[in-house]
Design a protein that fits this description.
24-stranded parallel β-sheet; 424 residues; 3-stranded mixed β-sheet; 27 strands; mainly beta; Pectate Lyase C-like; 8% helix; 4 helices
């Protein structure tokens, strides 16, 4: 008869726990798969492995996975069944993203986990039905459309090879999290309704928004969108994005920041490298508006969040954007501090400083290659441009606009005028 010491028994028990595997297969025949997926995650999402096999899973209500020391193999597609009236009811979604009161239909929390979708698994968002329903109607942030995939209060989490097809709103959000790696994210928000060809009806289909998060790595992103490819929002620090392709939309955004008068926004230590911007067929998506742009609200509070606000302070600094290729982008580099502002608003006190742009090439649709409209109350400082080789439209000279820029280097001599830029 074998005997075991208590430490050995504990080790064997731990190994057994880590070896737990739960496997899920689609129920089919229009049946909801939420309960069986939640049961598998409850059993194996802590110290185990959950395998969601290939196929389509009907998701008919909000779903949350709480993962710890675990692995999820997501081979299948989570089909969030279209029911606009149901999903627009706040009771049927999670409100875990504080900024602009966004809603989420699928939330992942926890620590020390990996979700591997193997470049085939992910989410079916049925966005076309949402987009066509809205058409050209006014759409505001916080109006209840759900974020497809949300990581909230995550520590040391990894998401690999994930596919989101037709998200009705943001493709991803990571909020109140740290030490997170996304490696391989494919989001496709492409209108196929001929009624709206040549128009942008896929507003707010951001590839990912980061908020109140630290040490977030975004690798191998391929985003087709009508809005921000990536959006680095308030209190995002130590963000690294590598090998990102943006197809259409408004580019990579910093902000908007300064929306909440009593909550300052700080963004720092951000590196974006090896980024490509591709202008799609204009019949499908007419926008490829920016390469990278920075935006803050004005210094006057008008209304209240989620759709109003302003007068927020803070600082955006320590940003490096390098190795960028542009395909007919409208305005390659832009900064403005009048987002949703009004004539006569006070100048923003939020400062942009220590921004570096290195090794940019390609083409622009406008002659203005760099457009910097900083605040008189907090002039931009320490801006660096190196090896910026962007062609203006044929027959036009490249132009540069600098307003309230305290110090910048690397732009052509006299590009912004001596009164606007002091060169060191």
């Amino acid at each position: 008869m074998r005997s075991f010491t208590l430490p050995l028994i504990a080790a064997l028990f731990a190994a057994h726990s880590l070896a737990k595997t739960c496997t899920v297969r689609p129920l089919g025949h229009g049946r909801s798969d939420v309960s069986q997926i939640e049961a598998a995650i409850a059993e194996c999402g802590q110290h185990g492995t959950t395998v969601i096999e290939a196929g389509e899973y009907n998701i008919t209500r909000k779903m949350q996975w709480n993962l710890a020391n675990s692995h999820v193999d997501l081979h299948g597609k989570l089909n969030f069944v279209f029911d606009l009236a149901y999903w627009m009811d706040p009771a049927n979604t999670f409100q875990v993203i504080f900024i602009q009161s966004q809603s989420s239909w699928f939330v992942i929390t926890g620590h020390d986990f990996t979700i591997d979708a193997h470049n085939t698994g992910g989410i079916i968002g049925n966005g076309q039905r949402w987009w066509s329903w809205y058409g050209n109607g006014t759409r505001l942030d916080g109006d209840g459309r759900p974020v497809a995939l949300t990581l909230s209060n995550v520590t040391r989490g990894t998401v690999r090879g994930f596919v989101v097809d037709a998200p009705p709103f943001w493709c991803n959000a990571v909020a109140d999290s740290r030490d997170v790696l996304y490696d391989g994210m494919h989001c496709n928000a492409t209108n196929a309704d001929p009624t709206y060809f040549g128009q942008n009806i896929v507003w707010n289909t951001d590839g990912i928004d980061t908020f109140r998060s630290e040490n977030i790595t975004l690798r191998n992103f391929d985003i087709t969108s009508g809005d921000d490819c990536l959006a680095i929002k308030g209190n995002s620090t130590r963000i690294l994005a590598q090998n990102v392709t943006c197809r259409g939309g408004t580019g990579i955004a910093f902000g908007s920041v300064g929306q909440y008068a009593d909550l300052p926004d700080y963004v720092s230590d951000v590196v974006l490298e090896d980024v490509t911007f591709v202008r799609p067929d204009p019949q499908i998506q007419p926008l490829m508006e920016h390469g990278v742009y920075f935006k803050s609200w004005t210094g006057t509070r008008i209304g209240f969040p989620p759709t109003g606000g302003g007068a927020g302070g803070g600082r955006v600094s320590g940003v490096v954007v390098r190795n960028v290729k542009l395909d007919e982008v409208t305005t390659p580099i832009q900064l403005y501090q009048t987002n949703l502002g009004h004539p006569g608003d006070a100048a923003s006190k939020l400062q942009f400083a220590n921004l570096t742009f290195e090794h940019w090439s390609g083409t622009a649709q406008n002659a203005t290659i760099v457009d910097l409209q900083c605040s008189s109350a907090a002039p931009c400082a320490d801006l660096t441009f190196e090896d910026i080789d962007i062609a203006a439209p044929a027959g036009e000279d490249a132009a540069y606009n600098c307003v309230h820029v305290a110090s910048a280097t690397g732009l052509p001599a006299g590009a912004c005028g001596a009164s606007a830029v002091k060169r060191r």
